[in-house]
Design brief:
This protein has 469 residues and is of the alpha/beta class. 40% of the residues lie in helices and 14% in strands. It has two domains: 12-251, P-loop containing nucleotide triphosphate hydrolases (Rossmann fold, 3-Layer(aba) Sandwich); 258-468, no CATH class. The protein contains 20 helices and 16 strands. Strand 8 (207-208) and strand 9 (217-218) form a beta hairpin. The protein is elongated, with a radius of gyration of 29 Å. The two termini are 56 Å apart.
């Protein structure tokens, strides 16, 4: 996103003369959201699969001026969604220069800025803060203290000669330092209940209290929290008074449609490698997407835990890495992922799934079975009705074909020989630019599909696979 230069206004007088109007954070977000909706622009760029479910709820909450909590299993994009809300703030906002809590020059709230404005008047120095710096985030951990969030006495300032009653001896925590911005608490139930109490005033009275100081700082911020469902997390809960103070609760979910699952993999997976062109064909990405959905629905998997979107992203990156490894070993100029790369994702993905206790020891077996089912489902979806007799006839006379994750594409094609119907196969898989790597990937996918439909035999020994009658 391009950044426009900050306004050239450096004093309070210049700011007033410019006609600048002060708005609260929630008013900024509301006005900018309405502008995007009216223009038909994406309200939360990069968020996929939520257009008809989650995003309308979030938009209504922001238009209503509500603080909100996003509730959902791991890997559903809660933090990503929160961070995109920064784009709904004004690009630049004026602050009193040097203020720790971003006071607006028109209405300073901290003692330091009130004294400065009283002394300097219209000459009070004004600075401009970009919206990217108006976002604060805290991952809730059991050791988080009230001082971390709200503030505490600064012993250095006391040692410099100030009295303990002086408000300027306060060291502000993360929440007041995000004043006039958006503050996010990730995994809110992990925050100790006595610490959650410190947020009650922030959400309702919109102020903070620091120890025994006679100090009331009216804060202007949008507070957003994320949490896993309480029936899954055993680490804590959101206390009832705090839950009541959030204006809206929005439930997130995993991609509903296969199309959204694929879009998410394409957007998030790092499939480009410096120096080595690498391609993961669409049919293999679809296998990964279908596999992810099957694992989520499997009765052997703990449904309360869920299967993160990172599961599919990491799997796509793993088969890309396997293709790059093969190209490096064989000196190939291009790296194209093939079916022989798929088994590598099973052990790599084991740690991302929580199984039911009864499945202990069978985790890899379950994942491998579901991967085969995903491959068969993808084969039927993409190649149903296609005449593959030309591929199958290669084995009618008892011939065999050996492949594996280190067998180069050129060797595979040479061993297979001329294949009638190859052009139709490539066309059905959407492969427009034919190359040895892409042709080998398509043919190997067809061979695996024929095997899974009991039309070819297959024998796997180590990293070698042999197809035959």
């Amino acid at each position: 996103m391009s950044v426009v230069d900050a306004p050239d206004l450096t004093t309070l007088a210049q700011l007033r003369d410019s006609g600048h109007q002060q708005r609260t954070v929630k008013a900024e977000v509301r006005d900018n959201l309405l502008l995007r909706l009216a223009a038909g622009e994406p309200t939360f760029p990069g968020i996929l699969g939520y257009d008809e479910t989650v995003l309308p709820e979030v938009e209504r909450a922001l238009l209503a001026g509500h603080d909100l909590v996003l509730l959902g299993e791991r890997g559903q994009g809660k933090t990503r969604l929160i961070r995109t809300m920064i784009g709904l703030l004004d690009e630049w906002t004026p602050v009193v220069a040097g203020c720790e809590i971003n006071d607006h020059p028109y209405t300073p709230v901290c003692v330091r800025c009130q004294n400065l404005v009283a002394a300097e008047g219209d000459s009070t120095p004004v600075a401009w803060k970009h919206r990217s710096l108006r976002y604060g985030e805290k991952l809730a951990t059991p050791d988080t203290s009230v001082g971390d969030l709200i503030g505490d006495v600064d012993p250095i300032k006391v040692a410099q000669g100030r009295t303990l009653g002086d408000p300027e001896t306060v060291h502000y925590g993360l929440v007041p330092r995000t004043n006039r911005g958006i503050f996010s608490v990730n995994e809110l139930p992990d925050l100790a209940e006595r610490i959650q109490v410190a947020l009650l005033n922030v959400l309702e009275e919109r102020d903070i209290q620091v120890r025994g100081y006679t100090l009331r700082l009216p804060l202007d911020l949008l507070l957003i929290a994320s949490a896993n469902p309480e029936d899954y997390t055993n680490r804590g809960r959101i206390i009832t008074p705090l839950k009541d103070r959030f204006g809206a609760e929005v439930r997130t979910h995993y991609p509903i449609d296969l199309v959204h699952e694929l879009d998410l993999i394409r957007q998030e997976a790092q499939l480009t490698w410096p120096g080595t062109p690498v391609t993961v064909p669409e049919h293999l990405l679809e296998v990964i997407a279908r596999w992810t959905r099957l694992v989520r629905e499997a009765p052997q998997v703990d449904q309360r835990s869920g299967v993160s979107a990172r599961f599919a992203v990491a799997a796509a990156e793993t088969i890309a890495a396997s293709a790059v490894r093969r190209a490096a070993v064989n000196g190939e100029s291009e790296a194209v992922a093939r079916v022989c790369d798929l088994p590598s994702v099973v052990p790599a993905s084991r740690g991302k799934v929580e199984f039911e206790a009864a499945e202990e020891g069978r985790e890899l077996e379950v994942l491998a079975h579901l991967l085969r089912k995903a491959t068969a489902d993808t084969f039927r979806a993409l190649l149903a009705g296609l005449d593959l007799s030309g591929v199958q006839s290669r084995f009618d006379d008892g011939g065999v074909l050996e492949t594996g994750d280190l067998v180069p594409a050129a060797q595979l094609l040479a061993d297979l020989g001329s294949v009638p119907g190859l052009a139709q196969l490539l066309d059905r898989l959407g492969i427009e630019q034919e190359s040895p790597g892409m042709a080998a990937s398509a043919l190997e996918f067809a061979l695996e599909g024929l095997h899974l439909n009991r039309r070819l035999a297959k024998d796997s020994v180590g990293h070698r696979t042999v197809y035959g009658r």
